[in-house]
Amino acid sequence: MLLVRASVVSPSQTFPSTGQESKKSSETVRVGVLGASGYTGSEIVRLLANHPNFKITLMTADRKAGQSLGSVFPHLITQELPKMIAVKDANFSEVDAVFCCLPHGTTQEIIKGLPRGIKIVDLSADFRLRNIDEYEEWYGQPHRAPELQKEAVYGLTEILRDDIRNARLVANPGCYPTSIQLPLVPLLKERLIEVRNIIIDAKSGVSGAGRGAKEANLYTEIAEGIHSYGITKHRHVPEIEQGLNDVSSSKVVVSFTPHLMPMSRGMQSTIYVEMASGVTTEDLYQCLSSYYENEEFVVLLEKGAIPHTRNVRGSNYCFMNVFDDRITGRAIIVSVIDNLVKGASGQALQNLNLMMGYPEGTGLRYQPLFP
């Protein structure tokens, strides 16, 4: 499979600068992981194992308090880590930054109580929607930190890195919104596609549903089939539309249907769009090529190459491509990510690197795992 550009780091490649690369490599940032016993928390730990400057000094997991992470996730048993404790027992004076990997609806109160000097990347949905009334409508409870919401910055790294760099609190995007906004934002920004009739068929590995025991996620419920869910009412809809509306000339309403697939990780969004008058798929391709040509983690494939989830597994990459539709005037975009990495913990680390003044790819240059 050929790529438009190489996706590995070489001496001749240049990637976006943080503007603060003079930071001493010997500096250590003390990091807390809140909710370390979930999938996104454990993935943060895996990624930080290769980070030269971030050291985990605090981990919380209320139901696993007192246990080691290796006893919960044996694949991480070789890591030297503090024992997990309850959030109420955490000493936040011992950390410079936290990854908040707690469930939706539990994060606002906790983050509100953190010291102002701590940098925060929140992987829940609690600060993604700027409109707190919209948050209440889609998440079924009032926003508990409306003043804090005003300072939260949405963390779609390749699109908003200048805002992220100067933020104290970053709302890390959801997995579906990441895979969808990365290809659509540049095209809407350049008015190459219409805001109407955007249809998104998205598929995720089961880890996207979290680690909690749920009947719908049992092996016999998921295996050997495709499980559609959240039709017309998935909570990522307002997040997707918020990001697209930010760059479009008029209101965007999308048709979005997610599906769980019988695989542990991976995500594919197949997006059907109507092109603006006189625009061709070649124009869409060239727009994405220009927009992402210097990006390390967003890769536009060679024309005709189909992105596959297996080719980004375990990595922070997003692979995408554009195809002609059989219907005149329409195009098909395919975007794939690992839902736990670029769709969650990898992008969170990318954001904290920016916030702390380190090159944003630090600790993230794992190549995809295949087979």
Please describe what this structure looks like:
The strands form two sheets. A seven-stranded parallel beta sheet has the order 3-2-1-4-5-7-6, with helices on one face. A seven-stranded mixed beta sheet has the order 9-10-8-11-14-13-12. The longest helix is centred in the last third of the chain and has 16 residues. α1 crosses α11. About 4% of the residues have low confidence. α1 links the parallel β1 and β2. It is globular, with a radius of gyration of 20 Å. Helices cover 26% and strands 19% of the residues. With 371 residues, it is α/β, with parallel strands linked by helices. The relative contact order is 0.17. The chain is built from eleven helices and 14 strands.
Strand content: 15-25%
Distance between the termini: 15 Å
DSSP strand count: 14
Task: Work out the helicity level.
Answer: 25-40%
Number of helices: 11
The poorly predicted ranges are: 5-12, 18-24
Largest sheet: 7 strands, parallel
| Rg computed from alpha carbons, rounded to a whole number of angstroms | 20 Å
The residue-averaged pLDDT reads 92
Report the principal-axis shape: globular
Spell the H/E element sequence. EHEHEEHEHHEHEHEHEHEEHEEEH
Query: What oligomeric state best describes the polypeptide chains here?
Result: single chain
Based on secondary structure, the structural category is alpha/beta
- Give the strand order, joined by hyphens, for the main sheet: 3-2-1-4-5-7-6
